[in-house]
Design goal:
Elements: H1 23-61, E1 67-69, H2 71-82, H3 87-96, H4 118-125, H5 131-134, H6 141-155, E2 161-171, H7 178-188, E3 193-195, H8 201-215, E4 235-244, E5 259-262, E6 268-271, E7 273-285, E8 290-296, E9 301-308, H9 319-324, H10 327-333, E10 339-349, E11 351-358, H11 360-365, E12 392-401, E13 426-428, E14 433-439, E15 444-451
Parallel strand pairs: 2-3, 4-12, 10-13
Antiparallel strand pairs: 1-15, 2-4, 5-6, 7-8, 7-10, 8-9, 9-14, 11-12, 14-15
Helix pairs in contact: 1-6
């Protein structure tokens, strides 16, 4: 198992007080929790819109058929950079990452006579509450919301493994502000690290790779390729995330033999298929002729798959779906208005995706220009000299989709036409599909993927 830095493994609110709450205290605890819930709801909307926008830009520019990334991880890591952004740089980041969707929900002002406000409750109860609650009245909604979100995601119980490595490396001559270091540690549980890019760029690259390799126990040895940094590099952001889950209802072990996966109308690739028959949430998007299926993992996480009925002669069949997906449609498709429980037969290929991206060009195409500009970047919240700009953003995401070590009997040579006597719907993923992994408590898309070619 990897032993890496978890984003925001903070104590949960209101569980560590050494004395029982009075009725009055309880009411204000409830008010604080309501506030946190509201800001996290805003962040869910912001992160979902960003995830879909990012996916469309990535799909339009990527030279590889398969895609896999973690919008939650990218957003939370870039929020750490946003913490030090000012002026137009901050405005552009807010628009691209939808941080301007995170509204301000006021908590009543602290009045000692009435014991109101989260800050006073903290002083009274002396409990180690999340900083998101303490900062609720300070107006810093975005970072406190990410703090709460990370806490909620990492606090989830279950058999899945979700591990993240993220760090900001800056040119040592820029000198990070002590205030920024403290806030970065408080909200994101990590501190920026100064390196000598000016005189020792290659050594700095190797040091970054060594750090990532150590944090991931060797799983990611060379995140930054040769030549990716030089003496002009001022700031490098690295982000790697790994997910491996256990299905709530295990698939049978791999079916005997290989089955054809239709990459397009003329190309076939043999794959190892998994089989499951279970009561699952399934729906149909009529105007797009697309099935949607929910496959729950143990814990608070589910995989949703979007599978078009047909593929084109020289296409994947996903083009219309990718073009039409929006936030409002996403919400509708995953709701009870579209999905209902049924006895479903599922055929799903076993696959593993490990995708690596340098995000500068994608983020620039989305409107994030100044942050990458030597002359325009404003990161005066990070450095007194304000000579930092974002040189590189590296992101790597990995997912394993298999029967996950189940002890069910091996498959019995089933064909793709279904098991005898089953009258319910079938979900046969033998051609390209989209999928996303959703944290159901916070409603955040942890991962988004496109599987086209085994």
């Amino acid at each position: 198992m990897q032993d890496v830095l978890h984003l925001g493994a903070y104590p949960q609110p209101f569980l560590n007080s050494e004395k029982p709450l009075s009725q009055e205290d309880f009411l204000w605890d409830h008010e604080c929790q309501r506030h946190v819930a509201e800001t996290m709801e805003d962040l869910y909307v912001a992160n979902t819109i960003f995830a879909l926008n990012f996916f469309k830009h990535l799909a339009n520019t990527s030279t590889t058929p398969n895609l896999f990334f973690s919008p939650w991880s990218i957003s939370s890591t870039m929020a750490m950079v946003y913490l030090g952004a000012r002026g137009n740089t901050a405005d552009q980041m807010a628009r691209v990452f939808q941080f301007n969707k995170v509204g301000v929900h006021e908590v009543p002002a602290v009045t000692p006579e009435k014991f109101t406000g989260c800050e006073l409750m903290q002083q009274i109860q002396k409990g180690p509450y999340p900083e998101a609650i303490l900062q609720a009245q300070a107006g810093d909604k975005i970072h406190s919301s990410f703090h709460s979100l990370s806490s909620a995601i990492n606090a989830s119980t279950g058999g899945y493994l979700l591990e993240t490595v993220n760090k900001l490396f800056g040119e040592k001559s820029a000198r990070f502000k002590e205030e920024y270091i403290q806030l970065s540690n408080k909200y994101y549980s990590t501190e920026p690290q100064a390196l000598d890019f000016l005189e020792c760029a290659e050594e700095a690259r190797k040091e970054i790779n060594s750090w990532v390799k150590t944090q991931t126990k060797g799983k990611i040895p060379d995140l930054l390729p040769e030549g990716s940094v030089d003496r002009d590099t001022k700031m490098v952001l690295v982000n790697a995330v790994y997910f491996k889950g256990k299905w709530k209802t295990p698939f049978e072990k791999k079916l005997n033999g290989l089955y054809p996966f239709r990459v397009n109308a003329t190309q076939r690739t043999p794959v190892q298929m998994m089989y499951l028959r279970e009561d699952l949430n399934i729906g149909y998007i009529g105007d797009l002729k697309t099935q949607i299926l929910e496959l729950p993992y143990t814990g608070d996480v589910s995989m949703f798959l979007l599978l078009p009925d047909e593929i084109g002669n020289m296409s994947t069949g996903l083009e219309l779906l990718e073009r039409e997906i929006t936030y409002d449609k996403f919400i509708k498709w995953t709701s009870k208005d579209t999905m209902a429980e049924d006895d479903v037969e599922v055929y799903l290929p076993q696959f593993k995706l490990e995708e690596r991206y340098e995000l500068q060009s994608i983020l620039r195409s989305m409107g994030l220009e100044d942050a990458f500009s030597k002359s325009q970047a404003n990161f005066s919240g990070m450095s007194e000299r304000n000579d930092l700009f974002l040189s590189k953003v590296f992101h790597q995401a990995t997912v394993d989709v298999n029967e996950e070590g189940t002890e069910a009997a091996a498959g019995t040579g089933a064909t793709m036409s279904g098991r005898t006597g089953h009258g319910g719907p079938q979900f046969v993923a033998d051609h390209p599909f989209l999928f996303f992994i959703l944290h159901k408590i916070t409603k955040n898309i942890l991962f988004f993927g496109r599987f086209v070619s085994p």
